[in-house]
């Protein structure tokens, strides 16, 4: 039987958010490393951490901005050395995602964080690919991988990384489908990576980039016009530029919005001030995502529930739209997307 979303009581809305099938399109897999797993991997790999205990590490998760988070995030990722470490990390994420009724996930990973420490890129990719395969078998979750370049490093370093990854990209064509741009945004505009994005485009890779998280609307424009990305990660600062909002809405460029992240990194002071409802009202293809769930207070359902609790303007119709947008914005095949939308429509009707 399908649930009529019109006039759904608020307490039923929270259950609906948890149960509805959804896709996650903005999750840094290194950001899913829980403190317990960081300590377990450190012990397995003989690495000494700068923190005494799980509790001491978790207590350090108080961030003033993006950079203050990235410093701890890169330290956490330093425990990843072997293929099994990348496999275990991704499986732990998929287990949580399955519990949240995520049916499809597109995982970002940061090869330079690992290659700089002497871990070969193929070790990273093969561990993640194996986890994607196991997650489909065990949980029925489909998944894709997106290789991100670190924007605080040079474009030459991105080119080096691309060259190192190319054999793996060729080997895992249907799985590793795209590239992204992450890390410190301020002072590192998208156009710094114009040439490497052009090369990736020639290679037939899908293109996304973080823009307009801390950086200005101009970075969203250049991600679209110079890098030619198909999705914007975050993008919440687009509202400062009405012409940009019109462009994003007109072209249905998806925004992968991460509400809990935005509060933890002080993009918004509180969830009640988040602009998700505004983005949807402006007709944008916004989606909800967890970004770095181990660091920001929750996985995908936590993001949905807390955001809907904080923003009374968000209704069951918005919940449906967000789930539908997540499928529309994914890099899955058109046939797969249509199946997910059918699944959603079979379970939930707008009356
Ligand atoms: N790397 C991991 N999380 C990130 C974020 N929210 N912004 C930029 N780079 C990131
Ligand atoms: Zn991100």
Topology of helices and strands:
Elements: E1 3-4, H1 10-19, E2 22-28, H2 35-44, H3 54-59, H4 66-77, H5 83-99, E3 102-109, H6 111-115, H7 121-139, E4 142-150, H8 155-171, E5 176-182, H9 194-202, E6 206-211, H10 217-227, E7 231-234, H11 242-250, E8 255-257, H12 259-264, H13 276-281, E9 286-288, H14 293-296, H15 300-310, H16 316-328, H17 334-347, E10 348-349
Parallel strand pairs: 1-10, 2-3, 3-4, 4-5, 5-6, 6-7, 7-8, 8-9
Helix pairs in contact: 5-7, 7-8, 16-17
The structure holds adenine and zinc ion (ZN).
The site of adenine (ADE) has 11 residues, from helix 4.
Bound compounds, each kind once, are:
adenine, zinc ion
Q: Which structural class do the helices and strands define?
A: alpha/beta
Number of strands: 10
Q: Which strands sit side by side, in order, in the main sheet?
A: 2-3-4-5-6-7-8-9
Q: Count of helical segments?
A: 17
Helix content: 40-55%
Q: Assign the CATH superfamily.
A: Metal-dependent hydrolases
The name of the CATH architecture is: Alpha-Beta Barrel
* CATH level-1 class: Alpha Beta
Q: Which fold name fills CATH's third level, the topology?
A: TIM Barrel
C-alpha termini separation: 13 Å
Strand content: 5-15%
Shape: globular
Average pLDDT score: 97
- How many structural domains does the protein architecture include? 1
